[in-house]
Amino acid sequence: MAANDWRGKLELWFEHQEGKTRLMRRQHVGPLAVQRAFYPETDGSAHVYILHPPGGIAGGDQLAIECHLAEQARTVLTTPGATKFYRSEERTSMQQVRIDVAAGAVCEYLPQETIVFAGATASMKTQAVLAADAVYIGWDFVSFGRPAAGERFGAGTFRQSVEIVRDGEPIWFERFCVTGPEAVKDQPFVLAGQPIMGTLVYAGPSIEDAAARVRDTLGDDAQHVFSVSALERVVVCRYLGDHMSQAKSLFRRAWHVLREGGIGKGGVAPRIWAT
Q1: Residue 109: strand pairing partners
Q2: Does residue 106 register a pLDDT over 80?
Q3: Which of 4, 43, 135, 175 could, after both became Cys, cross-link 106 (CB 3.0–4.6 A)?
Q4: Burial of 274 (0-12, 13-18, 19+ CB in 10 A)
Q5: Helix axes 244-263 and 210-218, enclosed angle (nearest 10)
Q6: For the chain, what is the largest distance between any 2 Cα atoms, rounded to a whole number of angstroms?
Q7: Cα 16 to the center of its chain, rounded Å
Q8: Residue of 113, 129, 38, 117 lying closest to 85 (CA atoms)
Q9: Is the dihedral angle over the CA atoms 167, 169, 171, 173 positive or is it negative?
Q10: What local confidence, expressed as pLDDT, does residue 3 receive?
Q11: Strand 169-179 and strand 156-166: pairing?
């Protein structure tokens, strides 16, 4: 690790007290912080914005985020802006997120997009550890380059893994790795030449006809760019296309359906998602 590399760590502890989820304790090292919690919902869910380094994540930077939800706590975690991985010069930049969700608690991890610039060597790892009856909804969007500006991800490497564990048993695990030349290929077994991909995973109470309900809500808008699968213990939505605004709109609508069906309340999006 070079002397000028960032090493940031953020730990958050949430508890449910007197009808409201409160951020009881926080620890941070380096360029990670949070804004004060907002409470736009009647059930006392805490909406919290995680602040990343303002200059983005460069080669060799290592960021670790840990969130602990006590019993019955409810949080919506997001970010006010995109996470950016810049050119790395062969030093891997990394972000690791671990979320522990205790009995009866609900965590929704809904960050803004991740932009991987050409020449980046980057890694993202997300792990959610759930009690038997805890609920987790998480999504991510990854943009390879900046398609709106005509910039493509022609060089570099991006690795990503997402793991969800319930009651000590893995219920969802996915690992992904793409290099710059692969990202711009047209083959369907890679990214079919599309620069933006997204994944939403719901792990909670069973929802009858979950996939059909999501499809009916999205209708023709989802054709050719969106899919949804109801597996044994998770519901998974995917996006692959070239418009970030389209990806966010589709996922936000799918999230509303899964949220209402799984935890019995309509979707009150973080303020940043209402725009």
Answers
A1: 77, 138
A2: yes
A3: 135
A4: exposed
A5: 140
A6: 54
A7: 23
A8: 117
A9: positive
A10: 47
A11: antiparallel
CA–CA separation, 244 vs 74, rounded Å?
A: 28
Q: Which of 12, 171, 33 is nearest to 107 (CA)?
A: 12
Residues 223-228: what's their mean pLDDT?
96
The SS3 of residue 106 is strand
Q: How many other C-beta atoms lie within 10 A of the C-beta of residue 138? A: 22
Q: Which two tokens stand for residue 103?
A: 């009995």
Amino acid type, 90: E
Strand 106-109 relative to strand 135-146, pairing = parallel
Q: Which of 142, 132, 141, 74 is nearest to 108 (CA)?
A: 74
User: Residue 71, CB half-sphere, CA atoms under 13 Å: how many?
Assistant: 2
pTM of the predicted protein model: 0.93
Bridge partners of residue 87, in order along the sequence: none
Distance linking the first and last C-alpha atoms of the chain? 39
